[in-house]
Input
Amino acid sequence: MDKNGHVFDSRCYSEPATVFIMVAEAPAVEFSLDLNDEQRQLQQWVHGFAEDVMRPAAAEWDEREETPWPVLEEAAKIGIYAPEFLAHAAGDGTGLSLPIVIEELFWGDAGIGMALMGTSLAVAAIAGSGTPEQAIEWVPQCFGTPGDLKLAAFCVSEPDSGSDVAAMKTRAVYDEAKDEWVLNGQKTWISNGGIAAVHVVVASVDPDLGVKGQAPFVIPPNTPGLRQGTKFKKHGIRASHTAEVFLDEVRLPAKCLLGGKEKLDAKLAKAREGGVTRQSAALATFEATRPAVGAMALGVARAAYEYALDYAKERRQFGRAIIENQAISFTLADMKMEIDAARLLVWRAAWMAKNRKEFLAAEGSMSKLKASEVAVWVTERAIQILGGMGYVRDTPVERFSRDAKIFTIFEGTSEIQRLVVARAISGMHLQ
Ligand SMILES: Cc1cc2nc3c(=O)[nH]c(=O)nc-3n(C[C@H](O)[C@H](O)[C@H](O)COP(=O)(O)OP(=O)(O)OC[C@H]3O[C@@H](n4cnc5c(N)ncnc54)[C@H](O)[C@@H]3O)c2cc1C
Output
């Protein structure tokens, strides 16, 4: 039981990798905005952690620009940073538990939230592209255990391949004699890059096939040839580590190719014949995780809106609270409306993804695009409502604004999301 009286014990969950496997076979669930008791309890429990542990630590780790290991340990100790927890949230047939949990964590703090959730992108790639045996082997290693925590990283971006994933230069070559893969290349902007125990790296196996010639590999802990390059100093989410990763003659046993060689060979053969193949490993992972990024943005937007609302009721100028001016109250009304509208898109996309409804209008991208732009707009408005107090680090609103900007950039920029939506609704390969 936590200090708010919520009983929640991650040990009651099924074995994590099993849940990831069961997820794919779950029966369809109708869409509903009514949270059930378990979802409400989960929301309150995570909110308690966000309020009591993350909020008080947020400013310090933002200034330090370091991974907040003590906070991650706290999260692991109570079961929030654990494969069982992620599997349980991801296993909810309505699709809503995961965005609910993520929104609360990012309401607590986006930098610490990203340090916590960075691992989940690699886990999504393993669960999405790997075999059940690979999920069972690698997912627990992505998290470690309380007292011996580990992180994971998902490595796609490169210096010359950001939005243009097909331009990827990192190569994976199969050494038949040794039944090993050899990886060489450079990744950049990698959350947890170099400090992660497990890196999932997307590499090109057949560059002539563009994204269809790419495959994801697990790089186990302490593999020779993988090293961290520059760690970036960032505008926001500064408690989350972002760095370059270099791969120099990294040799991997065959079992590290997610999905296995037989499946990859069949995919490559189909692509060479010009047949329709599934999306690239990188794009498939991003499509599945976009509603989750939308939920991150919602958390930051809601934090800024709530702070600005309270401030507007307290702050007095011209003998009245500033909220008594329509310029302020109408702005707050719009902020609330935009956040709620964005949440509806995020929840719809999360439900669709969970219930295997095809994103015919790129609803996943739409949800991430709307929520990220709402977060940037709401946090900027919050600064305006606070005036000078919004511009300094004495209040968290300045940090919320810096943090919000990342959501329009990573996992596909706003422009790329618009392109994905435009292609989906037109059926044309627009540029
Ligand atoms: C803090 C942080 C964490 C990150 N974490 C990860 C991670 O863990 N793993 C990972 O693989 N990557 C990660 N990234 C990388 C991120 O996904 C890329 O930065 C993003 O995809 C954009 O690529 P880019 O920076 O190369 O920009 P570019 O692709 O160079 O784009 C620059 C500008 O051009 C625009 N543009 C490009 N192409 C088009 C087009 N066709 N039409 C219209 N506009 C276009 C873009 O929208 C953008 O405005 C992270 C980035 C940051 C900053």
Summary: The radius of gyration is 22 Å. Residues 281-314 form the longest helix (34 residues). The chain has three domains: 10-150, 153-272, 281-426. The longest strand covers residues 180-191.
